[in-house]
Each structure stands twice: as structure tokens, then as C-alpha cells.
Specification:
This protein is mainly alpha-helical and 102 residues long. 48% of the residues lie in helices and 8% in strands. Strands 1-2 form a two-stranded antiparallel sheet. Strand 1 and strand 2 form a beta hairpin.
Length: 102
């Protein structure tokens, strides 16, 4: 029986503390190869602070990647009218000077 991706993720996350302790141990081990110590330090920095912004060359120009966030706004739905005549009356009221439909 195959294991669901969410189960694998949960299992992997259960080892987070041990993995970080291992990285710290490698980083602090004077006898560890320098490359291993640097990789461990970089992994810890990336997890704790996020990766540094990267520049990308596009058509010979260098542009910085930008995160775009969209805010979803739910507009109020119009209230149902009880009859066609009340709808026509509301339209007429909206067109009078000084009135606003908002």
C-alpha cells in the first residue's frame, strides 16, 4: 500500500529537531571537512532566514524577482428586489442629482 504524500511530509517533519541538531553538530565540528561545515551553516541560515534574493538575466537585462500578493475583496452582493417596479424605482433614485449608488 502506497503512503500518502501528507503522511510522508508529517513523518519527515517529525525529524526536524534532530536534523537541525545534526546540522549544528556538523557546523561546529572542527574535524569536519570545511565544505561540510559551510553547507551545514548555509542550510541553517536558509531555514532560519530564507534564501537570499536572486537576480535573473532576462534579454540581457538584470531584473530582481518580486513577490506579488493579491488581496481578494468580496463585494457585497446586491439585495434581491421584490418586484420589477421596485427595481425600476431604485434605478430612477440612483439617477437623481446628489444620489449615489454606492
Amino acid at each position: 500500500m502506497a503512503v500518502a504524500p501528507t503522511e510522508i511530509r508529517t513523518l519527515a517533519r517529525s525529524y526536524t529537531k534532530a536534523a537541525i541538531n545534526t546540522l549544528v553538530g556538523i557546523m561546529r565540528q572542527p574535524k569536519a571537512p570545511p565544505a561540510a561545515r559551510v553547507m551545514a551553516a548555509n542550510a541553517l541560515l536558509d531555514r532560519g532566514w530564507g534564501k537570499a534574493a536572486q537576480l535573473v538575466a532576462v534579454d540581457g537585462e538584470i531584473k530582481q524577482l518580486v513577490e506579488v500578493k493579491l488581496n481578494v475583496v468580496h463585494a457585497a452582493l446586491p439585495q434581491p428586489r421584490s418586484s420589477a417596479s421596485s427595481f425600476v424605482s431604485s434605478l430612477a433614485a440612483d439617477r437623481r442629482p446628489g444620489s449615489s449608488s454606492k
